Amino acid sequence: MGADVVFEVGGETVAAHRCVLAVRSAVFAAELFGPLKEGNAATTGVVVRVDDMEAEVFKALLRYVYTGKLPEMCKEDEDVTCQHLLVAADRYGIGRLKLICEARLCHYINVDSLAIILALAEQHHCQGLKKACFYFLAAPGNLTAVMATDGFQHLATSCPSIMLEIMAFLAH
């Protein structure tokens, strides 16, 4: 009702209100009102394409922007949804949502997920999540088990600086 912007994301269209988005996100403000706006964003009926994001993730992001709450998530997919939502929150500068996702992801750290979660923490500057990963590695037996995973081997080659941080953390 009264929406003045439409987002095309993942093959779907999602209507929203530019003012609401701009108040909650400097990135949305710049995209919809500032020099980053596509075409003439001062008119009604603006259509903005969102690439590299699933429609459900974008809808969850908007739900948070409007209500301050996350949608109910399926338990089986909550970790993956939180990963995608953290990326979206970082992309749109919604710090509180990013922190919520970070906190939830801390509960999903295990031998198999550590490399993915640690890479995500590194890429999106999530210091609390990174520290939780380091503490998990410091627990007896975890480092050896994690090092045997393909994910950890990929992390070691794609992000060698994180290996130095792990060694420094474990040395103390």
Automatic annotation (TrEMBL):
<dbReference type="Pfam" id="PF24570">
    <property type="entry name" value="BACK_BPM_SPOP"/>
</dbReference>
<comment type="similarity">
    <text>Belongs to the Tdpoz family.</text>
</comment>
<dbReference type="InterPro" id="IPR056423">
    <property type="entry name" value="BACK_BPM_SPOP"/>
</dbReference>
<dbReference type="InterPro" id="IPR045005">
    <property type="entry name" value="BPM1-6"/>
</dbReference>
<dbReference type="InterPro" id="IPR011333">
    <property type="entry name" value="SKP1/BTB/POZ_sf"/>
</dbReference>
<feature type="domain" description="BTB">
    <location>
        <begin position="3"/>
        <end position="70"/>
    </location>
</feature>
<dbReference type="Pfam" id="PF00651">
    <property type="entry name" value="BTB"/>
</dbReference>
<dbReference type="GO" id="GO:0016567">
    <property type="term" value="P:protein ubiquitination"/>
</dbReference>
<protein>
    <recommendedName>
        <fullName>BTB domain-containing protein</fullName>
    </recommendedName>
</protein>
<comment type="pathway">
    <text>Protein modification; protein ubiquitination.</text>
</comment>
<dbReference type="InterPro" id="IPR000210">
    <property type="entry name" value="BTB/POZ_dom"/>
</dbReference>
